[in-house]
Amino acid sequence: MRKSHKEITTVAFYENSFGRVSEPTKVKMDVSIYIDGEHAGFEINDVESGGDEFYAEGMLEIVDNVLYGYDGIFELPDYLLEMLEEMNVNVDEI
Predict the structure, then answer these.
(1) Do residues 10 and 77 make contact, with C-beta atoms less than 8 angstroms apart?
(2) Exposure string (b/e) for 22-60, b if CB count within 10 Å is 16 or more?
(3) Which of 13, 7, 43, 14 is nearest to 25 (CA)?
(4) Do the domain assignments include residue 93?
């Protein structure tokens, strides 16, 4: 199993199908990725509240070290794609 874990600072806000419903807030996020054969996923949560304020998780579709798809959030953040690249995963298909 391959794992990556980082703490990053980013801007977060609440959003629904009508658009943004809160003001952007600068937060520290705890970001984890695991890749275990055919199973891969990610988890993102804000450090201050332990994920009570901001939380996301999802699956990653990785075949032969190429990311073909994902589920769980609308768009993968750049910092997550960068972490995958550091794990030698090709993200060009996304």
Answers:
(1) yes
(2) eeeeebebbbebbbeeeebbbbbbbeeeebeebebeeeb
(3) 13
(4) no
Assign 81 to helix, strand or coil: helix
Residue 91 covered by a domain: no
Cβ atoms of 60 and 76 closer than 8 Å? no
Distance CA 39, CA 27 (A): 29
Query: pTM for this one?
Result: 0.89
* Other beta carbons within 10 Å of 87: 16
| Residue 11 in domain | yes
Residues 13-35: pLDDT tens digits? 988 889 899 999 999 999 999 99
**CA triple 86-39-11, angle to 5 deg:** 50
Q: How many domains does the chain have?
A: 1
